[in-house]
Specification:
single chain, 245 residues, mainly alpha, 74% helix
């Protein structure tokens, strides 16, 4: 591997993403809508009858949310496959987003299980203070601790994202890898590149704000653009870093 290889800038990655998405926005939007509708449908009807103002309702909602989060690993795997095909110039179909159900679905679920465990552990303090604030809504101390708990959750979520963002891509490139190998290889790839990915992610904030101003309609175009750019980021990493068994 050429040690002189220079990573592409965020602007270059975005430019390549736009180029590869050209003429494929329609199917990418369709894939995005399908995945989000299924996820929202399952989440809504799994918790619609829960009373989240009681301790039992909050706990049950927490558990159900965790289980759904783990199962979304199947769709995450399919989406990564979908965008890898787009970036690699291969024909794509809407059925590609379900590919995670075919290619080692157990590994996709286990990857998400590992990520969800850490994220949901970090959510426990926030969940506790949410319940306490329902009982004592004007308590300034509880509000302060709730804010700190929210910061803890955000920090853990960001670190999990930065370290393991490449795991699902690797699953499609190296399906023979064990789950632990996929996770450790993602960490290896991201050494020295977490700042780049963080900057890339933050650079999408203005676009996302515009999407919110359009009542979320523009997000149908923004989401595929972001996912394609993340895929470009992965392929750029793979050019720089040689992955070996």
């Amino acid at each position: 591997m050429d040690n002189l290889y220079k990573f592409k800038s965020s602007e270059e990655l975005k430019a390549f993403a736009k180029e590869h998405l050209f003429g494929k926005y329609g199917i990418a939007i369709g894939a995005c809508v399908i995945v989000n509708l299924i996820t929202l449908f399952v989440s809504f009807f799994s918790t619609i009858f829960l009373n989240t103002k009681t301790i039992y309702g909050i706990i049950l909602n927490f558990v159900i949310s965790f289980v759904i989060s783990v199962l979304t690993g199947l769709f995450t795997s399919g989406e990564k496959y979908f965008y890898l095909k787009i970036v690699c110039g291969k024909p794509v179909t809407l059925s590609d987003v379900f590919y995670g159900f075919k290619l080692y679905p157990n590994k996709a679920v286990l990857i998400q299980l590992y990520l969800s465990i850490w994220i949901y552990i970090s959510m426990i303090p926030q969940t506790i203070f949410t319940y306490l604030l329902l009982l004592y809504p004007d308590n300034a101390i509880l509000t302060l601790f709730y804010s700190l708990a929210m910061i803890l959750y955000l920090v853990v979520s960001v670190m999990i994202f930065l370290n393991y963002s490449q795991a699902y891509y690797l699953l499609h490139d190296f399906p023979e890898y064990s789950v632990s190998k996929l996770l450790s290889t993602s960490r290896k790839l991201m050494k020295g590149s977490k700042g780049r990915l963080f900057y890339l992610t933050v650079s999408f904030i203005p676009l996302l704000l515009l999407g919110l101003l359009s009542c979320g309609i523009a997000c149908l175009w923004i989401a595929p653009y972001i996912d394609t750019t993340y895929t470009e980021f992965f392929l750029d990493l793979m050019k720089k870093n040689q992955v070996s068994d």
